[in-house]
Amino acid sequence: MRDLVVSTMKDQPDIEVVAEIHDEAEIAEVLEETTPEFLIITLDSPGKRPELCDFLLPRFPRTKILALAPDGKHSVFYWASLDIHAASLESSEMGILNALRFNSDGGRRH
After folding, report:
1. Which domain does 41 fall in, by range?
2. Per the domain annotation, does 42 fall within a domain?
3. Which of 36, 1, 2, 6 is nearest to 18 (CA)?
């Protein structure tokens, strides 16, 4: 499946293959260096999101992940999206300072 995907990509004039990674442990480092728009990975268990997506997408939210099953029968496209949150605050010096010190994890910054 890898050879088919790579040869298909290389034949496309508007797609550039920037790296082929054979060791999963190197993926984050290569993404850091190349900042690709897309990453193609193996989908080991159809119906279950690869753990690699949960690791990579928060760190590289601009990279989209295409997961392909080795048998060619399943594929899933994953991407990160931004959630926007809001909270009312007191319109005072203290209210503004509290907002600036607020940590999105629910705690205060020190």
Report:
1. 2-78
2. yes
3. 36
Number of separate domains in the chain: 1
Asked whether residue 37 is assigned to any structural domain, the reply reads: yes
Q: What is the pLDDT of residues 49-96, one digit of tens each?
A: 999 999 999 999 999 999 998 888 889 999 998 877 777 777 888 888
In terms of residues, how long is the chain?
110
pTM of the model: 0.71
Distances (CA, A) of 22 to 27, 41, 42: 9, 10, 11
N- to C-terminal Cα separation, the chain: 50
Q: Beginning with the edge strand found earlier in the chain, give each strand of the sheet holding 75-78 in spatial order.
A: 38-42, 64-68, 75-78
pLDDT band, very low/low/confident/very high, at 103 (cuts 50, 70, 90) = low
